[in-house]
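CORE FACILITY INTAKE
Project code: CF-77B
Contact: R.S. (postdoc)
Sample description: multi-component assembly, four entities in total
Requested service: structural model of the whole complex
Turnaround: standard
Below are the sequence entries exactly as provided by the requester. Do not edit them.
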Amino acid sequence: MDAIDRKIINRLQQNARVSLKELAKECYISPPTISARIRHMEKSGVIKNYYTLIDPKKAGYHIKAFINVKVEPADKAAFYTYIRDVPNVLECNCISGEFSMLIKVIFESTELLDSFINSLQKFGKTNTQIVFSTPVDVRGIHLSE
Amino acid sequence: MDAIDRKIINRLQQNARVSLKELAKECYISPPTISARIRHMEKSGVIKNYYTLIDPKKAGYHIKAFINVKVEPADKAAFYTYIRDVPNVLECNCISGEFSMLIKVIFESTELLDSFINSLQKFGKTNTQIVFSTPVDVRGIHLSE
DNA sequence: AGTGAAATGAATCTGTA
DNA sequence: TACAGATTCATTTCACT
């Protein structure tokens, strides 16, 4: 990971579909070299995925929420298995504090969110925070070059 | 937004760098049509961005956390302006409940996280949850086709 | 909206330093 | 690790359904 790799990453985070040719121009090295560097970062796991951010509302998902769940350590494995297969779960983190899990979800309606929260009760107490607005949406880290 | 558009979106969410040719094959329509559909979804705002997910730890960011901040309505505009320019902020949502803001951040060290939390005190009380693990990392919504 | 075929443009492969 | 040139491959444009 040198300055050029960081520059490539910054650019890919802004636009994952940028061409190798443009990256080559911006980094003052040839396209084959850019290609090799990207492949290398994919293999080493620095680059995990190329992802498309869509507008959930325009896709019919009007409710976004964060749900805190208090899961006992013994139930964690079962919880992970369950949560991974629910497509409405956009992210799940294991965190410090009274509630051990923080999951980000989107749903078409409050009714569906409610029914999902009910399904979580078998794992433990929940606390739900509804999203009103998103002043900063999912974005990357700007690495210093 | 028909079934083909949803299929394109599902595929782009899995891999934003997939070629038009492959999308064309999978959707049984020609590359120019795929291209036109994608352009259309970009213009209408359904597709917001193509984003690269990197491994923060491999980039030197070892601490991930969620910070709840209690911001008075009158201070929101100033808070948004501040938060938007902090590159360590990966997401910021305005939410229901006692704390009005939920921000996701990454830092190189706990010291830097601590100093950031201090800088937030002028906006209101904070409550920080450190991330131990991420069983489900940032992902897209699977649209039914 | 959709297509096929031509033209353009980009990515990969081979050679080489 | 990097490159330049040749080849292969993908994307865009355009005339037409």
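Facility notes:
- Strands of chain A lie at 47-54, 63-69, 89-95, 101-107, 126-136.
- Residues 29-30, 32-33, 36-37 of chain A lie near DNA strand D (CB under 10 Å from a C1').
Invoice: internal transfer
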